Each structure stands twice: as structure tokens, then as C-alpha cells.
């Protein structure tokens, strides 16, 4: 978002997004977690993955991003909205990841 409060298109450069290098997956079925992990390993190696679960609806992003790598993977269903929250990756990697995700055939998430 720009300083005047309007959204702008994300550039494709090597400027990292704010925060630690991590992806937070919310609302994904446990059966998809392993394939998501494999895709991320190919596209974004050395990126921490956290899978939010039902008990995380009150947790802050800062707390969730400090959880152990792959925390929540394969756990029970979650009623959280399907979303991918990204931090610390470059905007170029963001575009690469979104393109790879589109090829999975999984339903579209909210992107943040």
C-alpha cells in the first residue's frame, strides 16, 4: 500500500517484504499440506512454513511467524479463511510463488 492509502501493484525486484522469511497458510485442508510444502521447497527454498490451525484465530502474525518450521502441518481442519500470508521473501519470489501456486489447481486463497 502506498503512503496515500491506495494499493499499488507489487514490483518484480529483489527487495524483501517486511518480516522474517516465512509463509503462513490458513484454512488449507491437511491433505494439501504436504504438496504445499513440496512446492515451496522448489520455488522458495529455505523458507519457513507455518500452518495455522483452529486455535490460532486469536494469535498475532508476529507470534505465528516465530513458530517452528512446518508447525501445524497435517493437523485438523480449520474454519479460518483460506489465505497465504507472506513475509521476508522478495517481490520477485512472490510472483514466482503465486505462478507456481496457480498450477497446483488448489482453490484461490486470499494473498497478504
Short précis:
The chain has 112 residues and is α/β, with parallel strands linked by helices. The chain contains three helices and four strands; from the N terminus they run βαβαβαβ.
In total, the number of strands is 4
SSE series: EHEHEHE
Class from helix and strand fractions = alpha/beta
Q: Which strand order does the major sheet show?
A: 2-1-3-4
Explain how this protein is built.
This protein is an alpha/beta fold. The chain is 27% helix and 14% strand. It is built from 3 helices and 4 strands. It has a 4-stranded mixed beta sheet with strand order 2-1-3-4, with helices on one face. Strand 3, helix 3 (91-102) and strand 4 (110-111) form a beta-alpha-beta unit. Helix 1 (30-43) packs across helix 3 (91-102). The longest helix has 14 residues, at 30-43. The radius of gyration is 14 Å and the shape is globular. The termini are close together.
Q: Which key phrases capture this entry?
A:
112 residues, 3 helices, alpha/beta, four-stranded mixed sheet
Question: Which helices and strands occur, and which strands form pairs?
Answer:
Elements: E1 22-26, H1 30-43, E2 48-51, H2 61-64, E3 83-87, H3 91-102, E4 110-111
Parallel strand pairs: 1-2, 3-4
Antiparallel strand pairs: 1-3
Helix pairs in contact: 1-3
Amino acid at each position: 500500500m502506498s503512503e496515500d492509502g491506495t494499493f499499488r501493484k507489487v514490483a518484480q525486484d529483489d527487495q524483501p517484504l517486511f518480516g522474517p522469511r516465512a509463509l503462513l497458510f490458513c484454512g488449507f485442508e491437511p491433505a494439501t499440506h504436504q504438496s504445499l510444502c513440496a512446492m515451496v521447497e522448489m520455488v522458495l527454498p529455505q523458507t519457513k512454513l507455518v500452518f495455522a490451525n483452529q486455535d490460532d484465530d486469536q494469535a498475532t502474525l508476529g507470534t505465528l511467524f516465530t513458530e517452528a518450521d512446518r508447525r501445524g502441518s497435517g493437523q485438523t481442519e480449520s474454519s479460518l479463511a483460506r489465505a497465504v500470508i507472506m513475509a521476508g521473501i522478495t517481490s520477485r519470489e512472490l510472483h514466482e510463488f503465486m505462478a507456481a501456486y496457480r498450477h497446483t489447481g488448489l482453490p484461490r486463497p486470499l494473498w497478504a
